[in-house]
């Protein structure tokens, strides 16, 4: 896990305003598609320094090969009713590549649900907020959910990555090929329980409330 940068007063202010606006969202959270990218290392999660773990369980430690290893980058998304992706991403990501991912994975989801009102969530990464990406999403009539800066802890898919990480790297697992790592990631993703994903979606109201409760500081989800 990358070290978190401290929140500025502006970040805190925007987070609080977001929480006030979205506390009353209620069942509207069921119509949000949450997305994220995540890097998976052959050697173990996040360079074997830190990783998300269930606070009810003991943290795990992993050894690291001295020579290091490769990694794969994944995009995925889910809403209350389904999972979208996985997409394994090649090379350094930019706006055209992100748009290609959306076209190949997000757009079939959008077409499948037809005229149902829904919103797409992604964070404020440069590839997500570029003019090219905004123009593409506008051309597809996609409503993007307002999202506060520096708020990875709000996104329920972060919990999904953590749950998957425990499965992918169980027993201190390491991988000696990208293919084997991809296979393990796919298995963990497609074996997620629908009830778990629904519970995470419905935790959003509490997350917004907790942002207000701790005055906009970082959550511990």
UniProtKB/TrEMBL annotation:
<dbReference type="InterPro" id="IPR038717">
    <property type="entry name" value="Tc1-like_DDE_dom"/>
</dbReference>
<dbReference type="GO" id="GO:0003676">
    <property type="term" value="F:nucleic acid binding"/>
</dbReference>
<protein>
    <submittedName>
        <fullName>Transposable element Tc3 transposase</fullName>
    </submittedName>
</protein>
<dbReference type="InterPro" id="IPR036397">
    <property type="entry name" value="RNaseH_sf"/>
</dbReference>
<dbReference type="InterPro" id="IPR052338">
    <property type="entry name" value="Transposase_5"/>
</dbReference>
<dbReference type="Pfam" id="PF13358">
    <property type="entry name" value="DDE_3"/>
</dbReference>
<feature type="domain" description="Tc1-like transposase DDE">
    <location>
        <begin position="32"/>
        <end position="170"/>
    </location>
</feature>
């Amino acid at each position: 896990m990358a070290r978190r940068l401290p929140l500025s007063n502006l970040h805190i202010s925007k987070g609080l305003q977001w929480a006030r606006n979205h506390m009353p969202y209620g069942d509207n959270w069921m119509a949000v598609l949450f997305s994220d990218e995540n890097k998976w290392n052959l050697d173990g999660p996040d360079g074997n320094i830190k990783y998300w773990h269930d606070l009810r369980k003991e943290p795990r430690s992993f050894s690291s090969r001295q020579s290091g290893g490769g990694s794969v980058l994944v995009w995925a998304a889910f809403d209350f009713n389904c999972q979208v992706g996985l997409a394994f991403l090649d090379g350094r990501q930019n706006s055209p590549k992100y748009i290609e991912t959306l076209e190949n994975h997000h757009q079939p989801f959008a077409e499948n649900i037809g005229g149902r009102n829904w919103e797409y969530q992604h964070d404020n990464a440069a590839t997500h907020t570029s003019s090219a990406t905004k123009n593409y999403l506008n051309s597809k009539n996609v409503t993007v959910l307002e999202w506060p800066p520096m708020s990875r802890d709000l996104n329920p898919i972060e919990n999904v990555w953590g749950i998957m990480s425990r499965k992918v790297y169980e027993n201190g697992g390491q991988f000696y090929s990208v293919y084997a790592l991809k296979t393990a990631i796919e298995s963990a993703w497609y074996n997620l329980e629908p009830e778990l994903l629904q519970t995470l979606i419905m935790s959003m109201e509490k997350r917004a409330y907790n942002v207000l409760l701790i005055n906009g500081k970082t959550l511990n989800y």
